[in-house]
Amino acid sequence: MRRKLWLSLLLIVALTTTAALAGCGKGSSEKVKLTIGEVTRSVFYAPEYVALAKGFFADEGLDVTLTTTAGGDKTMTALLSNTIDVALVGSETSIYVYQQGSDDPVINFAQLTQTDGTFLVARNDANFDWNNLKGATFLGQRKGGMPQMAGEFTLRKHNIDPHADLELIQNVDFANIAPAFASGTGDYVQLFEPTASVFEKQGTGKVVASFGVESGHLPYTVFMAKQSYIKKNNAAIQSFTDAIHRAQLWVQENDAATIADVVAPYFDNVDKDILVSSIDRYKQQGSYATDPVIDEGEWNNLLDVMTQAGELKERTEYGKIVDNSFAEKSIEDVKK
After folding, report:
1. Each residue of 132-183: pLDDT tens digit?
2. CA gap 83, 242 in Å, rounded
3. What are the two backbone dihedrals, phi and then psi, of residue 43, each rounded to the nearest 5 degrees?
4. pLDDT for residue 147
């Protein structure tokens, strides 16, 4: 009798557990909550906004909250302190954490962009030549951040020493770089879209070059999470990656105007024509990754950029903090 009662209790527990797990899956009314911290608000991340706006995350059983944590250092701090679950930020930040010998390293699991997303904006430069930067004042980005390192990589490619041939300003907080240029600081500045196009329309400056084109393919902006979080939330990370891949394919298949209509709610104060031109710039130069896989060649290019900037203690092996299993499975999942 006791044996039958024990078996009955086990069956009830098993059925209850199965029902609870099923309740958190795709198509369920009970969604898994997940918070993303993005390093900045930019149409450079259009697939992320598409995944939110078109309900791709919701379709995958996720209730995603998006917050903007301006600057790579602030984004990584938010991730390490568990303020956010997933960070959208440059892969270099995960390398810095790994170099410090973390017991819970940050793992890159899904790539969103594959080039630098900044443009060189000149205040007055009708006939642009890279040599014009020599002796000029350049309003740069944070030391050790991907925009600054990709910028320095590009300047050196054009035989310009960023620390000797121009006046480099690096003491302006990330969120205040654009306002500083607008108020008169610097002859040149490195800006993301749509800010670069807004400045062109206002007559504040002119886009004269693309650091994305100049610095080549990189795992520039990647979704990452702490190793411990991924282990505990394996299914949610897979669902998240599947939603991102669906959004990547949708962005690839649609034109800039159609994409702009979908992402417009995330850019309340930006005119439609600016959104369209900004998205088109990124599409034309191939900035949006077409799948979430982090390519080893791109990773090695990132390490080259970081080495040249003097920010690496040693080259971090590709497989140490890159996990492509979710990205690779998403390619199969989305085909179904």
Report:
1. 999 999 998 888 888 899 999 999 999 999 999 999 999 898 889 999 999 9
2. 23
3. -65, -10
4. 87
Q: How far apart are CA 172 and CA 150, in angstroms?
A: 18
d(CA 186, CA 179): 11
Rounded Cα distance, 214 and 157, in Å: 9
Question: Cα separation of 108 and 134, whole Å?
Answer: 37
| CA atoms in the 13 A half-sphere facing the CB of 95 | 25
Distances (CA, A) of 220 to 45, 94, 320: 11, 12, 18
Say what the pTM is: 0.85
Q: Quote the CA–CA distance of 188 and 133 in Å, as a whole number.
A: 8
Name the token pair of 284.
Answer: 């034309």
Q: Could you read off the pLDDT of 189-248 as tens digits, one per residue?
A: 999 999 999 999 999 999 999 999 999 999 999 999 999 999 999 999 999 999 999 999
Q: Using one digit for the tens of pLDDT, what is the confidence trace for 104-132? A: 999 999 999 999 999 999 998 778 999 99
- Kindly write down the DSSP assignment for every residue of 257-316, as one continuous string: HHHHHHHGGG-TTS-HHHHHHHHHHHHHTT-B-SSS---HHHHHHHHHHHHHTT--SSPP
Two structure tokens written together for 17:
């557990």
Question: Is residue 230 classed as helix, strand or coil in its secondary structure?
Answer: helix
Longest dimension (CA), the chain: 92
The sign of the CA dihedral 204, 181, 188, 42 is negative
Q: For residue 19, what are its two tokens?
A: 């029902």
Assign 71 a pLDDT band (cuts: 50, 70, 90): confident
Angle of helix 234-253 relative to helix 325-335, nearest 10 degrees, comes to 60
Helix then strand then coil, in percent of the chain rounded to 5, is 50, 15, 35
Q: Is 263 exposed, middle or buried (0-12, 13-18, 19+ CB in 10 A)?
A: buried
Q: Which of 239, 243, 271 is nearest to 257 (CA)?
A: 271
